[in-house]
Request: fold
Amino acid sequence: MSMGHWANMRSMQRSRDVLAHKVKKGTLPRILEFARPYRSLIAIFIGAVLLDAAISSVSPLLLRGILDHGIDDNNRGLIVFLAVMTGLLAIFEAIVSLAERRISAWLGESLIFDLRQRVYRHIQSMPIAFFSRTQTGALITRLNNDVIGAQQAFTELFSNAIGNVVMVVLILSAMFFLSWQITIVALVLLPLFLVPARLVGRRLGGLYRRSMELNAQMNNVMTERFNVAGAMIVKLFGSPAKEVAYFEQRALQVRDIGIEQATYSRIFFVTLSLTASLATAFAYGFGGLAVTWGTISKGTIVALTLYLTRLYGPLTQLSSLHLDFMTALVTFERLFEVLDLEPTIKESPDAMAIPEGPVAVVFDHVDFAYPAAAEVSLASLEAVAVLDDTPRTEVLHDVSFTVSAGTVTALVGPSGAGKTTMSMLVSRLYDVDRGSVSIGNVDVRSATQLSLSDTVGVVAQDPHLFHDTLRANLLYARPEATVAEMETALRSAQIYDMVRTLPLGLDTVVGERGYRLSGGEKQRVALARLLLKSPRVVVLDEATAHLDAESEAAVQRALDETMAKCTSIVIAHRLSTIRNADQILVIDAGRIVQRGTHEELIAMDGLYNDLYQTQFAGQEGR
Ligand SMILES: Nc1ncnc2c1ncn2[C@@H]1O[C@H](COP(=O)(O)OP(=O)(O)OP(=O)(O)O)[C@@H](O)[C@H]1O
Ligand SMILES: [Mg+2]
Reply:
């Protein structure tokens, strides 16, 4: 009984906006589609719910029999028989209700699993543009809270709707059969509870939403300041007293709203149990008089009051059925919204593998603009009310060049010119708007994802390592690599000596919360990962920017060895890297403004010469 009341209170707390929300057409059939694989289980579940309802509405009649026919008629045999029956029924009911719970948990958890893995798989298939816009927290919420919410609403709806309807019908029929007068009065008393409960429920709903907001604000303060970067800013710029006051203010609001919530929810329960007590008092009073008049028997009063206490729970739950139903629709809709986001970058059905052997990379009249927010994301995942509607601005204009197989092309140019953008088009992290990018004469849009990731290796401007061991991070690039191969790669990336000094060696956990590698060390591990993969096309985005001149030179030698065997695109600020390139492309504002070798470019006036004078000339001696 009290479980039901909790559920009931929870549904009252749910936002009233839910009822105002317009659900997209076709949501209900889609939900049923999810339930389809569990048809037979659902049927068994409904059977158990019905059985449970039936059993629990029989026992008051047995007790009435003991009082009226057993005790009054001095029939000892009947008393013992009915008491044993009541006991057996109670045991049977306990078993059925356990089975019921087990089945509903199975159903619920399976549904959660289905939804979760569907959403996870879908999110994995989204393009990088999606991740660069959405908030990680919002995505995780979809996978955790929304999935669980959808499941709860779903199973609650099943047991609520079906179980309670049957329960109410059975109990009311039994009560009418016993005494229609008392039954009608009990029903009249019902609004006495429902009206205040609704009012309190509404107030609780408001408090609940507000407390969620306040809690989120407080948590935000913590997550922003407890990560290393945030804590550093506080240490360097903040004043501790101000920080504490800022946090306290939020924590105090959370305290106040917690007190309010506790009070109101107690009012809710008090009203409920008060109504039940009043109704019982009335039933005994009115019924007692009726017994003295000889209209009804003692057993009837006992049975009636037992029924009364069992009636209010299901009835009040049914009164919020509509809200439950809408909540289920809305949570499912929030999940479907994510599932309906079409991944903009997909493998084409007739995709082919990039041919074996050395390959050339060709950009052919490429125009490119980063996709607009509406194309790749949802307002609710970006934690903004409306999606940013800035029009797409073209970042690359008519870019054409060829990196012949086995050669090195260097990209240079001012910050924001579009170098990183060009490098991302090679591994098809984005699709071009016009023109094409092809590797080994295969347009990257018609290459298989697998052959593309096998062919192209990238070390990004700010490489990421997973929170895992060095070994796992290296093996991510090539799962079958041997320890000897890993050591060779680490040695070439000039990081082996450092890894060897770590007590756990390759088993050291690195990444966000693991062993802290310096910027340059991280870059070298990322390079080792690339060397291990030994891809045919290498893309380096300032991959050696964090290294000192000496280790850079050493890494460069290792890279030169690898790069001699492959086709490379290198974004670099160092003269040494650029000077050895077979071709230098000078990028400015999304266009190739100059191309040639170092000697050719230095001989003419232009951006390269300016860059050379301001940036590179000082490095000449190295
Ligand atoms: N995800 C994105 N969405 C929209 N615009 C972007 C995105 N990433 C980059 N840009 C824009 O594209 C332009 C080119 O950026 P890009 O990162 O390619 O420059 P870059 O040449 O690599 O510069 P740097 O030398 O500073 O790394 C910039 O104007 C930048 O603001
Ligand atoms: Mg860049």
